[in-house]
Amino acid sequence: MTVEQHDTVDFVGVSPAGELILTISDHLPWDTVNEHLLCLQEKLNCYLRFVESGELFALYPNAVGRQISIDVVLQYPAPEDTSWFFEKASRAIAAAGFRFSTRHLPTRPH
């Protein structure tokens, strides 16, 4: 599952602290920044719908009462000029009552 599949939640897990982590796997390069951001926005909206509709709790009843975090895992570092997008996404997700984080996976040498 990937960021391009806008109707699917990629990964659901629980942190050692008990927080429910919904992970978006973003493997796309940043060649076309606007298209990439649009794709990511659609995926984030999918995740918000998944939680707010109650589907998360129907599929994972043990998620009830847990702090929820949406974590975007980027294969490629986001360009500096995209920081506005991640700040806006963070505010919107926080306003919905959830946490938001992004991280970049370091590339492995061949």
Task: Compose a concise summary of this entry.
This protein is α/β, with parallel strands linked by helices. The protein is built from three helices and four strands; from the N terminus they run E-E-H-H-E-H-E.
Q: Average pLDDT value?
A: 92
Number of contiguous helices: 3
Radius of gyration: 14 Å
The count of DSSP E runs of length 2 or more, i.e. the number of strands, is 4
Number of domains: 1
The shape, in one word, is globular
**What is the distance, rounded to the nearest whole angstrom, between the alpha carbons of the first and last residues?**
24 Å
* Order of strands in the sheet with most strands: 1-2-3-4
Helix content: 25-40%
| String of helices and strands | EEHHEHE
Largest sheet: 4 strands, mixed
Strand composition percent = 15-25%
The SS-based structural class is alpha/beta
Unreliable stretches, pLDDT < 50, 5 or more residues? Answer: none
Please render the helix and strand layout as text.
Elements: E1 11-14, E2 20-26, H1 33-52, H2 55-59, E3 68-74, H3 83-95, E4 99-104
Parallel strand pairs: 2-3, 3-4
Antiparallel strand pairs: 1-2
Descriptive notes:
The chain has helices spanning 33-52, 55-59, 83-95, and strands spanning 11-14, 20-26, 68-74, 99-104. Helix content is 35%, strand content 22%. It has a 4-stranded mixed β-sheet with strand order 1-2-3-4, with helices on one face. The mean pLDDT is 92. The chain has one domain. With 110 residues, it is α/β, with parallel strands linked by helices.
Descriptive labels:
110 residues; alpha/beta; four-stranded mixed sheet; 3 helices; 4 strands
